[in-house]
């Protein structure tokens, strides 16, 4: 995803004011990694260690992590470190031998999902999981058409980049891919009640459009919290009619849980549960191994029959003993430390605090989200709702200067993306809100002074 937040690996003009070590690291990156990678922030940051919700730079300065969902149970959680070290010192192989680690984990994972979703297949990344889910959906339905939201991101393989419009016009969508507007309650004509029906109508129109071109729909795939579209969680249940529509047309619903999954939304373990739907296929990744590369597709078993008959599946690293040990420790910690309840409780505090800030600052047009996945939409004017990506960029960069890490989402990057590790506490939330308040106050002063 290219957002305005990301900078080129080495930009001599920007690098001018940076300390020598950062300048040197940027130059080395450019030399050895090439030009494709992007970094966050005008002043990129180098981290050397982490713990809980804190990251430390090379001077030992702590940064509050309000961004990272991969270390979901906290950076360097001792239980994960211990489980990984123990397994690494005993056995780690490819996945063509019998080992009970993957079975214990699969059983434990499947127990968190609806009964109909009874098979798990392991991969290393979310991209691979989506790629595999797409192949399964196409094989099972015999269709090829896919419907995604307008600024969706589902991953980096060739097939999945073709259905990730947020990668930009340089990465063209596949011929069999159609986009629909995200279910945006803030801008929906007719208000929140209309979100479900209008999302379904858009999906229905996309299905008709595919069919007009002789393309049978294989799947509707959505991130169930619409992270890259701008974070849309409400009203709960809005996915139901769209999922019905794709099924009526012979397609499947793939829930991409890479972002909302594993208790982040607070009300449930999975984002789709908020909407009361049972997907045909669920993909997951990022937080699954707290940093170890493990991801998965979970499916209704009957969807796998034809795929298994026609295609052999092997993934060298996917679901290996060490990754499964990490993933098992993650589930243990989520349950033992009550992280789902924490996400709900602290998420609510954040929503309340942001609503209070919205009373003070008209630039906050909307606050929304579920659990510890929150979006605050910045606008130039509340009446027109014109997006304010410049302010969002300034806020993200100035927060970074004050050692608080967040990011931004939406097609133009005007939605502050607040998505910390799950052990984020009430005190951490207070620190974020105070820092944001200070910064917006300064921005208002600056705007007044510049008149
Ligand atoms: N789906 C969603 C919704 C994502 O946000 C991402 C990663 N940002 C992916 C899939 C791809 O996951 P990975 O980077 O592990 O391939």
Tally of individual helices: 13
Query: What ligand molecules are bound, each kind once?
Result: 4'-deoxy-4'-aminopyridoxal-5'-phosphate
Characterize the quaternary organization of these chains: single chain
Based on CA atoms alone, the radius of gyration comes out at: 22 Å
| Name of the CATH class of the largest domain | Alpha Beta
Number of strands: 18
The CATH homologous superfamily of the largest domain: Type I PLP-dependent aspartate aminotransferase-like (Major domain)
Instruction: Report the CATH topology name of the largest domain.
Output: Aspartate Aminotransferase, domain 2
SS strand fraction? 15-25%
Residues in helices, as a percent range? 25-40%
- Structural domain count: 3
Q: Spans of 5+ residues with little confidence (pLDDT < 50)?
A: none
Give average pLDDT, whole number.
Answer: 95
**CATH architecture field of the largest domain:** 3-Layer(aba) Sandwich
Shape, principal axes of CA atoms? globular
Pick out its properties.
18% strand, Aspartate Aminotransferase, domain 2, alpha/beta, five-stranded antiparallel beta sheet, Aspartate Aminotransferase, domain 1, globular, binds 4'-deoxy-4'-aminopyridoxal-5'-phosphate
């Amino acid at each position: 995803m290219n957002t305005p937040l990301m900078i080129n690996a080495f930009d001599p003009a920007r690098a001018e004011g940076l300390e020598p070590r950062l300048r040197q690291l940027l130059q080395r990156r450019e030399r050895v990694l090439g030009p494709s990678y992007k970094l966050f922030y005008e002043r990129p940051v180098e981290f050397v260690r982490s713990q809980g919700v804190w990251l430390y730079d090379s001077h030992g300065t702590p940064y509050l992590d309000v961004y990272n969902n991969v270390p979901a149970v906290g950076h360097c959680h001792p239980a994960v470190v211990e489980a990984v070290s123990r397994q690494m010192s005993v056995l780690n192989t490819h996945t063509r031998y019998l080992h009970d680690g993957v079975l214990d984990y699969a059983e434990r994972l499947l127990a968190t999902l609806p009964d109909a979703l009874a098979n798990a297949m392991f991969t290393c990344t979310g991209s691979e999981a989506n790629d595999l889910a797409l192949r399964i959906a196409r094989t099972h339905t015999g269709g090829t058409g896919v419907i995604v939201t307008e600024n969706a991101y589902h991953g980096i393989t060739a097939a999945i980049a073709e259905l990730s419009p947020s990668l930009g016009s340089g990465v063209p969508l596949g011929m069999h891919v159609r986009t629909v507007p995200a279910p945006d309650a803030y801008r929906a004509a007719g208000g929140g009640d209309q979100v479900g029906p209008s999302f379904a109508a858009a999906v229905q129109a996309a299905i008709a459009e595919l069919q007009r071109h002789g393309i049978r729909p294989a799947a509707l795939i959505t991130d169930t919290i619409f992270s890259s579209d701008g974070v849309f969680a409400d009203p709960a249940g809005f996915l139901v009619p769209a999922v019905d529509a794709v099924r009526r047309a012979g397609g499947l619903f793939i829930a991409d849980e890479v972002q909302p999954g594993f208790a982040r939304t607070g009300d449930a373990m999975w984002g789709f549960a908020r909407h009361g739907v049972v997907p045909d296929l669920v993909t997951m990744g990022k937080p699954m191994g707290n940093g170890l590369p493990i991801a998965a597709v979970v499916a209704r078993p009957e969807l796998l029959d034809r795929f298994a008959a026609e295609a052999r599946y092997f993934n060298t690293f996917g679901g290996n003993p060490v990754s499964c040990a990490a993933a098992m420790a993650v589930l243990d910690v989520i349950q033992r430390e009550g992280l789902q309840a924490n996400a709900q409780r602290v998420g609510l505090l954040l929503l309340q605090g942001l609503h209070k800030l919205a009373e003070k600052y008209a630039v906050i047009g909307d606050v929304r989200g579920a659990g510890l996945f929150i979006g605050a939409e910045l606008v130039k004017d509340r009446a027109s709702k014109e997006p304010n990506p410049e302010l969002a960029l300034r806020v993200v960069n100035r927060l970074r200067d004050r050692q608080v890490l967040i990011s931004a989402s939406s097609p133009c990057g005007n939605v502050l993306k607040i998505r910390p590790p799950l052990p984020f506490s009430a005190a951490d939330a207070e620190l974020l809100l105070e820092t944001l308040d200070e910064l917006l106050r300064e921005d208002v002063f600056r705007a007044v002074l510049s008149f």
